[in-house]
């Protein structure tokens, strides 16, 4: 993700996800290591994104071998391109790249508690439920999120 294509990423997320991200979210995507955010193209058309950022790992002293975590902040594939394996490949690519970052202890994400399809997708990819956050998605019903992670 670069300054020159962040507008396309923003539009893709606006039409695929039921949440609105602030400008700071898009700034963080541009600032993320390039190998930890993946754009998905089909016949040269942008159809998806795996948007990540690196965060400090709570309870671990900075400078420790694995003192950070990869937060998968947004993942979206346009509906017409789902069930083609594009999301699976993109997420696997990002997670494989994350393994080369020795300071990353794990990857995690929030998924809407009412989105069984997304939960199934992530769990099939090796993510496990770590907890929940009541009210994380205040504009959705239910408003809760599950935290899924993978070491």
List the defining traits of the structure above.
151 residues; alpha+beta; 6-stranded mixed beta sheet; 4 helices
Task: Summarize the structure in words.
The protein has four helices and six strands, in the order ααβββαβαββ. The chain has 151 residues and is α+β, with helices and mostly antiparallel strands. A hairpin with a 2-residue loop joins β1 (38-42) and β2 (45-56). 26% of the residues are buried.
Write a concise synopsis of the structure shown.
By secondary structure, the chain is α+β, with helices and mostly antiparallel strands. It has four helices and six strands, in the order H-H-E-E-E-H-E-H-E-E. It is globular, with a radius of gyration of 15 Å.
Rg result: 15 Å
| Structural shape | globular
Q: What do the pLDDT scores average to?
A: 93
Classification by helices and strands: alpha+beta
Major sheet: order of its strands? 1-2-3-4-6-5
Architecture blueprint of SSEs:
Elements: H1 6-16, H2 23-31, E1 38-42, E2 45-56, E3 68-77, H3 86-99, E4 104-112, H4 116-124, E5 128-133, E6 145-150
Parallel strand pairs: 3-4
Antiparallel strand pairs: 1-2, 2-3, 4-6, 5-6
